[in-house]
Design brief:
heterodimer; A: alpha/beta; seven-stranded mixed β-sheet; 12 helices; 23 strands; 21% strand; elongated; B: mainly beta; three-stranded antiparallel β-sheet; globular
């Protein structure tokens, strides 16, 4: 019976049997404007093996794709590379229905999966260096602790030269096409950067360490198969290089001004600061938090050497939407940025000082004192804001010229 | 001096090495590490650590 869902061949022995979540637009606070996929892979060898599963509501889709190739009850092994529920949600159901002989995960994966789904889940922990014979091919495991969860690991299939990389090298991009080379490069770059900025930015030092470590394992990798978005077959080094550049976080000669506004005053300051920055030849982008979500802002931060943040003072505090983004940004630990703070106020005007302190604590270099304006900026204030932008842009140009 | 392991991510605090990147000098016993120190791997607090067997 054709249920409509079919498996897509990846290589001689491997099929993609995941699910496409075309319409998801919110993923734990990450705006997934182009949807996503939950990738699962079926290896047909003497031991039939399923690599990762999908988010729980997509179990039927995965099962139907598997059934288009083999009877799912024939699955001997399941490997869970990552315990996050978008990949493990369907695992308890898969174990119950398919009755595999063994289910493998990392040592911390066992702990985390049992915390999610109950201690009775039958799991076999594996470590870096362990391998599993599937018949003609061998699957070997490398733990990647904290990339990006404590339980994370990757698996390598020798006959097909596939690295099943779980969330690493992935992106939130729903599509009918399996391979990255079937999508335009600008789209891959944009979504991969957004994914890195939101999921991996705070782990940049570990990403760099892993990228240095990977070649030492001497794995001949022809295909990188992540758990989200398309797979890499031609030039998988393209995405590896993009990761390196994102993780190194070089200071870029671009600027971002993000801000909230209550009655338009902070918006006026933002526009003046933006014009001042532009006057020095530095490209600048203005983003009001009324219409831009935190995941878009963080993605732009990654591309901007200068980040200027504006907030009205509301009840002596930061404006709530600014506090939201600052909390998110703090956890993602961006490196190598110049910063500045500004805002309009009515009574005592704490917000720019609070912003300055928070940016400083995050490691932003702050060459200027924050600027604040009571109620509505007058001509002099607008000139001050323009000049603020000019000076910050000049500092950025000095820094990036040296680099 | 006893080694301590992070129960969240498995990082091992070895007092012989300390955590110089985060201001903990080699030779600092776990008990003497400041209360606001966090696991350099996963960011969990000191109370997430337990002594290694």
């Amino acid at each position: 019976m054709n249920t409509g869902f079919t498996a897509i061949p990846v290589s001689e022995r491997v099929y993609w049997v995941g699910a496409i979540d075309w319409n998801v637009r919110e993923f734990h606070g990450y705006e997934t404007g182009r949807g996503t996929t939950y990738n699962a892979f079926l290896i047909l060898d003497e031991k039939i093996t399923l690599i990762d599963t999908v988010k729980a509501p997509f179990f039927a889709e995965m099962k139907a794709r598997i059934a288009s190739v083999i009877d799912p009850a024939k699955i001997d092994y399941i490997v869970s590379n990552h315990a996050e529920p978008d990949h493990s949600g369907a695992l308890p159901l898969a174990i119950r229905e398919f009755q595999p002989e063994r289910t493998f995960c990392s040592v911390l994966g066992e702990k985390n999966l049992k915390a999610y789904y109950g201690a009775e889940l039958p799991l076999t922990p594996v470590k870096t260096g362990d391998s599993l014979s599937l018949g003609k091919s061998t699957l070997s495991f490398v733990e990647t602790k904290m990339l990006h969860w404590p339980d994370s690991m990757v698996s390598y299939l020798d006959t097909e030269k596939i690295l099943f990389s779980q969330d690493a090298f992935g992106m939130h991009l729903a599509g009918s096409q399996l391979w990255a080379d079937e999508y335009p490069e600008w789209l891959l770059a944009a979504e991969a950067r957004k994914y890195f900025a939101n999921i991996l930015l705070h782990l940049s030092p570990k990403v760099l360490a892993l990228l240095d470590e990977l070649p030492k394992l001497q794995l001949d990798i022809r295909i990188i198969a992540p758990d989200h978005g398309p797979l890499w077959r031609q030039h998988p080094e393209w995405i590896v290089q993009l990761y390196r550049e994102c993780a190194e976080q070089p200071m870029k000669p671009r600027a971002l001004v993000f801000y909230a506004t209550m009655w338009g005053s902070t918006d006026q300051l933002a526009r003046m600061i933006g014009d001042g920055i532009r006057s020095q030849g530095v490209p600048v982008e203005l983003c009001s938090l009324g219409v831009n979500d935190r995941s878009a802002i963080v993605t732009k931060v990654l591309e901007s050497g200068l980040v200027v943040v504006g907030s009205p003072t509301m009840n002596n505090q930061l404006y709530p939407s600014v506090a939201d983004v600052m909390t998110y940004l703090k956890g993602l630990r961006p490196q190598h940025h110049l910063g500045g703070a500004f805002g309009s106020y009515g009574w005592s005007g704490e917000a720019p000082k609070l912003l300055q302190a928070e940016l400083g604590a995050m490691g932003f270099e702050l060459p200027l004192d924050p600027i604040s304006v009571k109620y509505m900026p007058n001509a002099e204030d607008r000139e001050r804001a323009f000049d603020f932008g000019v000076k910050l842009a000049q500092e950025l140009l000095k820094k990036t010229a040296k680099a | 001096m006893k080694k301590y392991v992070c129960t969240i991510c498995g990082y091992v605090y070895d007092p012989e090495n300390g955590d110089p990147d985060n201001g903990i000098a080699p030779g600092t016993a776990f008990e003497d590490v400041p209360a606001d120190w966090v696991c350099p791997e996963c960011g969990a607090g000191k109370d997430s650590f337990e002594p290694m067997d």
